[in-house]
Design goal:
Length: 294
């Protein structure tokens, strides 16, 4: 797949009206975005996509995820039959005959090691329901998924506040010629908050950015977003950015017009990360991996 550098994330559609989400979807496609990323657990997201843009199916690659079917099938998460039912339901919701990329949605290493969930995705590919299979997640489970060798793509956290993947995941994934999809590419723009956010992921990014003290975050917000996004795209094939505002898509595309970061800009961001974490180490079994060594 030849994808646009920006992809549209749709988790925010869970609380959006159809009209609002439809405007965003059409704006994204009209601007040239070729990736729509969703999941079966993003509320009404799949239904909205199918209803709004299935008639434009040739304009985009469709990525979705499975594993959390929210109780409809009376089966526990990650049960192989649940995944089969979930994939079929996604096809119906999305009003399509095939999904370009189906991803396991952050299942644990323990579940991956059983192999059953991977078998389900491979059977779906053999049946023509999906074109490619991937894993969406981080840390130890992501590394196992890479080493397993069955996946075509990895969706992983990559941003100025989350660079664990640079050393522990990306080299191995690139060696396997996996597509790299960046989730949270702007670190939830956590630096804009004056106080520690309530959202746990955003709060962790907020704390890290307070320690990292990137100078460019103190200036113009658009310049900061541009640098942060271009940093992520230095290593990812596509960055998934969610929004319910059509003009935000156009603005992000305009910010990318500055081109790639210079090698010096990229290395300065990496150096600050490495310096701030020189007294820490990556702990694969931990929740976030970035923990103090005592």
């Amino acid at each position: 797949m030849s994808v646009s550098p920006l992809g549209l994330g749709t988790s925010q559609f869970a609380k959006a009206s159809f009209e609002e989400a439809s405007r965003v979807l059409h704006s994204a496609l009209d601007c040239g975005l070729t990736v729509i990323d969703t999941a079966e657990c993003y509320g009404q997201s799949e239904e909205i996509i199918g209803r709004a843009v299935s008639h434009r199916r040739s304009d985009y690659y469709l990525f979705t995820k499975c594993g959390h079917a929210e109780g409809e099938f009376s089966l526990p998460d990650w049960h192989p039959h649940l995944l089969e039912l979930s994939i079929d339901r996604s096809l119906r919701r999305l009003k399509t005959d095939y999904i370009d990329l189906i991803q396991l949605h952050s299942c644990s290493e323990q579940i991956l090691r059983r192999g059953e969930v991977i078998d389900v995705l491979q059977r779906a590919r053999s049946a023509g329901k999906v074109r490619y299979i991937g894993y969406s997640g981080d840390r130890r489970a992501a590394r196992y998924a890479i080493d397993y060798g069955a996946f075509d793509a990895l969706q992983v956290s990559i941003n100025i506040a989350d660079q664990e993947a640079f050393d522990h995941l990306l080299p191995a994934a690139q060696a396997k010629q996996m597509g790299i999809i960046a989730k949270r590419p702007l670190a939830n723009v956590a630096w804009k908050s004056r106080q520690k956010p309530d959202n746990p992921i955003q709060a962790i990014y907020w704390q890290r950015l307070a320690e990292l003290r990137y100078g460019f975050l103190n200036g113009d917000i658009d310049e900061a977003v541009s640098i942060a996004l271009r940093f992520t795209l230095s290593v990812a094939d596509v960055a998934i950015v969610g929004t319910t505002k059509p003009d935000r898509i156009q603005k992000n595309l305009a910010l990318l017009a500055a081109g790639s970061l210079s090698e010096q800009q990229f290395e300065n961001i990496r150096a600050r990360w490495k310096a701030a974490t020189r007294w820490r180490k990556w702990i694969p079994g931990s929740q976030w991996g970035w923990q103090a060594v005592v």
